[in-house]
Amino acid sequence: GGVGLPYIKPWSLRFGIPAIFSVVTTLLFFTGFRDYKHSKPEGSPLTTILRVFVAAVRKISQPIPDDPEELYNKEDARSTSSLRFLNKAAIKLPEGQEQKKWKVCSVREVEDTKIGIRMLPMWPTFIVIGIVLSIGNTYFLEQADHMDRTLGKIKVSIPIFLLFFSTTSRLFAHLYSLFTTQKFAPPIGIATSMKWKPEDYIGLRIMVY
């Protein structure tokens, strides 16, 4: 599609052909809706985050215990020292734990909330990256079509630009992963690296420790 569309002149066909294929693939996707296994929702992650903050604020005057046995840890998870204020949400209550979900949370729920907070700076970053990549991928062929593509007596065809764009992207992703991932990922803890595969474009792999 990326090779043939630049040679179609009417803009109505340029946008119409991808739109038709998008509609067809969407309909094919929904034809298998009955075959999917539907699982009942088991609560929202946003509700869990809110519960952790509410429980921590309710115990704001209590000191953080040094003994892990004083924390509600039904999944046998490990409590970390980062964002220690939220650890107060897991302090056990004398009257029971299961019935007081807005007063006490498990260590696993607290740690999941911490992971979500650490990811907040990455969300706007990847939104901006997605916008830039989408604009580049959308108008790359159009820019190549309007530039002077002559190289001496040879006129470079548009598919050559597309091949060059794809090859350099994969090569850069491979070199980045080869020279920087092993060096910078372990000490940072939250490592963002470009994963290269022959069958993929540039994939982003996020590892949160």
Automatic annotation (TrEMBL):
Membrane topology type: Multi-pass membrane protein
Transmembrane region(s): 15-33, 122-140, 160-179
Subcellular location: Membrane
Keywords (A to Z) from UniProt: Membrane, Transmembrane, Transmembrane helix
UniProt KW Chaperone keyword: no
Protein name (Swiss-Prot/TrEMBL): Uncharacterized protein
Pfam families in the cross-refs: PTR2
GO cellular component: membrane
Keyword DNA damage among record annotations: no
Species per Swiss-Prot/TrEMBL record: Ambrosia artemisiifolia
Annotated family: Belongs to the major facilitator superfamily. Proton-dependent oligopeptide transporter (POT/PTR) (TC 2.A.17) family.
GO MF terms, alphabetically ordered: transmembrane transporter activity
Gene3D superfamilies found in the cross-reference section: MFS general substrate transporter like domains (1.20.1250.20)
Domain of life: Eukaryota
